[in-house]
Amino acid sequence: MVTRVVSAALGCLVALAGCNVASHVESTGGVGVGGAGGACPRALAVLNSDYLSTSISAVAVDGRVLSASLVSSASKTVGTSAALSGDVVLPLEPMTTGELVLIDRYPNGVITWVDGATARVRAQLNVNTGFSANAHDYLQVSPTKAYVSRYYSNRNAGREPFDAGSDLLILDPTQPAVVGRIDLSGEGGSFRANPDRMRRVGSDVVVTLGRLDAAFTSAGDGLLVGIDPATDSVAWNASLPGLSNCSGLALSPSGVLLAVTCSGVFSAGPVGQAAQSDVVVFDTTRRPPIERARYGVPSKLDGQAVAPPLAFATEDLLLGVSFGDLAAGRPDTGFALILSTGVVRAFTHAAPFALGDLLCLPGCSARCFLADASTGAILPLDVDTGAVTTGPALRVDTTTGLPPRSIGVF
Predict the structure, then answer these.
(1) Closest-CA residue to 318 (of 268, 248, 266)
(2) Model pLDDT, residue 162
């Protein structure tokens, strides 16, 4: 049953049993002053986590820390009914409402809306509907409609409304309440559909499907699905033959190019995974989008598979991350891909699985940002004609000391 108040049994309690954030830590306040306007957001939202607990910092575009811990697993006075767990992500689509939306994925399945100006929680909503649905993304369609992608399917569906999973839940965020669902299970073929990340492309919402088996050891070809928000139905799909476990999405400043990351499956081993992995760019002037180019990124990075994070710095420059390897002692790599030439250049390295989200703000700033958990900081990236240089590391959560993982805006 969907309710506004979520049981505190979902994840660590507000009293902090099982959390790793000190119980005395409180919010350092909201961000009452807006950004520069236009393409500039009010603030960057930096999600910090050790996978046991979570905090959110607010950072100005110029790198100033505006609020070290806007809200966290330790927050007791901002209105949370269920404290944040350690498995929280930010929406891929930039928020423009002034609210910060947090997706508490597995097993909690809670969406939290935070007023960025006051740092108080407006509402929370359980989107599990009777099973651990593993919500992966949130996209605001209109003031009264939002989609939540649910990665898992329910083998015992039919016990309560909207409990099948492998879908996009349709929410009314003003209530908040679940008002419908878009079933994507049929798009998986012989695999589970695994709806993942979402981006608005023209009048459509594009969703990446993981299309993995139940054990995550094999996968079908990657697939993009286009949703028509006017009808809340599938309008088209576009396959990525030979590539698998495709999840990351990035839209160019003009909106003409859509880039997709495919990571392959780890069970295939380093060589097999790299063969299933790449960065692919689509032309969105056609419906469905048409594949324009693949860049063979793993072969240019010593066989490292591409991780999901991806961002357009300019119309011709993509920034991405490749996976390191603990067993082989190979680090994560931050790379720049020049689309017009296909040249790939590494610009930073970090411990395996330490590099997180990338964020660029074309039209607002020539600077991009990369989360680096190995240093406990976000790295400013200065971009100039394909050359990417890293600036001094910015430590943003000086209150809880949690390392950064994700970067969004609000």
Answers:
(1) 248
(2) 97
Give the residue from 163, 219, 172 showing the smallest Cα distance to 196. Answer: 219
Residue type, 354: A
Ranges of residues in the chain whose predicted pLDDT is under 70: 1-26, 33-38, 76-81, 385-386
pLDDT digits (tens, 9 = 90+) for 234-258: 999 999 999 999 999 999 999 999 9
Per-residue tokens: 260: 């997709």
Can you say how many angstroms the Cα of residue 115 is from the centroid of all Cα atoms in its chain?
Answer: 20
Residue positions counted in the chain: 410
Secondary structure E strands in 216-363 = 222-228, 233-240, 246-251, 257-263, 277-283, 290-294, 306-314, 317-322, 332-338, 344-350, 355-360
Closest CA to 244 of 266, 259, 226: 266
Residue with tokens 């591409």: 306
Cα distances (Å, whole numbers) of residue 329 to 289, 326, 356:
39, 5, 18
What span, in angstroms and rounded, lies between the C-alpha atoms of 12 and 97?
28
pLDDT of residue 5: 32
Question: At 363, is the secondary structure helix, strand, or coil?
Answer: coil
- Residue 388 structure tokens: 């990417």
Residue the block writes with tokens 């490749």:
322
DSSP 26-45: -------S--SSTT--S-EE
Half-sphere exposure of 266 (CA within 13 A, CB side): 8
Indicate the pTM of the whole model. 0.91
Structure tokens belonging to residue 343: 């040249």
pLDDT, tens digit (0-9, with 9 covering 90-100), for 41-83: 889 999 999 999 999 999 999 999 999 999 998 775 445 567 8
- Residue among 302, 307, 303 nearest 279 (CA): 307
